[in-house]
Specification:
heterodimer; A: alpha+beta; six-stranded antiparallel sheet; three-stranded antiparallel sheet; 21% helix; B: alpha+beta; Gyrase A, domain 2; Elongation Factor Tu (Ef-tu), domain 3; six-stranded antiparallel barrel; globular
Chain lengths: 123, 348
Amino acid sequence: MVYFSKEHEWVRVEGKTAVIGITEYAAEELGDITYVEMPREGDLFARGEVICEIESVKAAGEVYAPVSGKVIETNPLLVDEPEQAGENPRQEGWILKMEISDPSETGGLMDETDYSRYLETLG
Amino acid sequence: MLKKTPLFEKHRESGARMGEFNGWRMPISYSSILEESRWCRQEAALFDTCHMDQLLYRGSFERMEPFFTRKLRSAPPGKARYVLMLSNSGGILQDLLVYRLDSDALLFVLNAGSGAGVKRILGDAAPGISYPSERNAKIDLQGPRSFRVLEELFSLKFSLKPFSFTEIRLGGIPCLLSRTGYTGEPGVEIYLPPGKVPELWNKILSHPGVRTAGLGARDLLRLEAGLVLYGSDIDERVNPFEAGLERFLDFEKDFRGKEALEDIKDKGTESVRMGLVSETRRAPRAGSGIFSGEKKVGRVTSGGFSPSLQRGIAMGYIRREYSEPGTGVTVKRSGRDCAARVSDLPLI
């Protein structure tokens, strides 16, 4: 199941693991991504905290933890090819994996249909 | 209200991402800022620079001389010079290109939005300053293949030397073709009538080696090349010695601010403009402090990601004791640190 946050992150839930990336909308807004500042594996984050920072040629953006949990893996590809986070945001460009501490928190996220509607409200 | 260049519709049709720059609605990028920068470094990139201001002067050069840091007369007709205008205390009021058109005419090319201010300063001293009514639009073709492109498109032999210009017809359009630019690459700036801009733009773009580039790429390219942007890297608060622009001062002539500068020249300045290269891809950004340990030793005035170096780069002012190339410093921005080394300019 894939969920979406209002801050334009996607979350794919696989058992207790959440794979997290940014959406095409966020990628388009940022432009060419040049750097991703990753958290350390093992770091704990509460929902809504800044979990990583993304720099592009135009701007710096923050990625918020869409759920609470522990970082168990960061995408090694993004060290040398950070642009993948924007060019292939749903596949090779995933950012990190978390161990979800409270599965009920996904209830506060949107599904694909709701997210599409949400994007329309942004114009 | 934002102004539009004669290419506005073209930019929109091509799906360019538009943004505001000094009162103009300009293309920031057409596809990818990084790709556009690379193309300019390797091939030939076409820029809409119609937003830049121009002023025309006809009359005695003697009345103009006191405003500029280099002798206007030292440039023969057909030559352009980069010059500065200073305040009485030596602060930089403006940087610009002066084109010596003929025995009694000069063309000043300025940053977007600067024309009115400069016209006021100069016009009070000398009548004869006006906005040019013809040929007052401009497009830039920049990159190592630019000259070849012009030769192939217009069946001409390109022989202009740096900072030289000539009057020429390109595809029948009367142009002033100048071997100058703002990217650090060989290239030209082409001045032409606004109504003819779309025609020449299309003609140049019809060459397979040419692609459009926006202001995003232009900013990265000039940063890599160590070229200053007025309002970001220089302004009235800094003098040419701090800014590393002393080679554009001619102390053999009299100019406004000279007295103050002679004093500064003897005493030296506390800080100097230098480059920074990040240890990682992280880019130092304008406005950030430069630190050595806990001590603030400077400030970043422009920063970004360098497609050529694949590192974050910046320029800024740093205290002389810390300005030796290779010195390790930390750039701090909203609590996040970026390790960098001081570097000479240009950065590439």
